[in-house]
User: Fold this.
Amino acid sequence: MSHNHIHAHGDPSKIGEVRLIWAVAANMLLTLAQVIGGLISGSLSLMADALHNFSDAASLLIALVAIRLGRRPADAQKTFGYKRTETLAAFVNLLLLLMIGFYLMVEAFKRFYAPEPITGWIVVVVAGIALIVDVFTVLLTWGPSKNSMNMKAAFLHNLGDSLASVGVMISGTLILLYGWVWVDALITLAIAGYILWQAVVQLPKVAHLLMDGAPSQISLARVRGLLAESPGVVNVHHLHLWQIDEHQIAMEAHIVLDDLEQMEQIKSPLKQALSDKLGIKHATLEFESRDYPCPDRNEP
Assistant:
C-alpha cells in the first residue's frame, strides 16, 4: 500500500506492472473486508485502516495509469514527454491523504467523548487478514523498489501499514480482554497521525518538482563553477536548472566566450562534463561574444 505516491516517477520498464495490479486487487479486497468488519464490529480503527487501504489501492492504481501514460513519446504538445504524469498523480494522492487523515482525527476525538460498543474478536480477525495482505503487498513491491522511488515509497508505506494492522489487532485484543474501547480511538489517532505525517513530508518534494525546482543534489554554484572554469569562457549568466521528472535533469545557460569561433571546440567538452560529473543530460547552451548586448547579462 503506498500513498504516494510522492512520489511516482520510475522508469516504467523497470517496474513490475503485474505486481502493481496484484497489489491493487489485494488492497481493494482488503478494504471491502475491513469496511464490512468495521460496520459489524463498530470499530473506528478498523474503518480507519480500511480508508487507509483504499487510499493505498487508489494511489497504486493512479501510479499504474501514470506509468503507462509516462511511456508515451514526446509530441508537439508535450515536448518533454509525459513522465511528469506520475508527479501529478502523487500530488493528487497526497491531497487525498491529508483529507482522510484530518477526517479520521475528528472521528477519533468524537469516539473519545462518545464511546460505542465494539466487537473485539471481529476486529482481531479482520486485522489479522489485513496483516497477511499487507505482508503480501510488501513482498510484491520489494523487488521493484530497488529501481524506483515510486515503488520504494510503496514498499515503505506497506511496511508501515503492516505495523498499523498489528496496532488494530492489539486494539481488538485489549477490547476482548479488558473492555478498553477507548483503545480503538487511540489506535485510530495513531493511524491518522501516520497518514498526515507521510503527506506532510512528501508534499513539499512533489510541489518542488512541479514548480520546476532545482534538484537538491546539485547546487547552482557547482554548475556555474563547472561552466566558468572551462578555458575560453568569460561569463556565465541566465543559468536555470530544473527536473523534468525524478530521473531527468535539464538546464539552460548563456555563455560568453573570449573567441566565438572556438564555440564548437568548447561546447562538446562542456556538455560531456555536465553529463559525466553532474548527470545533466539535457543541457541547452547559448554562446555569445563579449560584445553581444544580451538583455539577460545582468542575471545571476
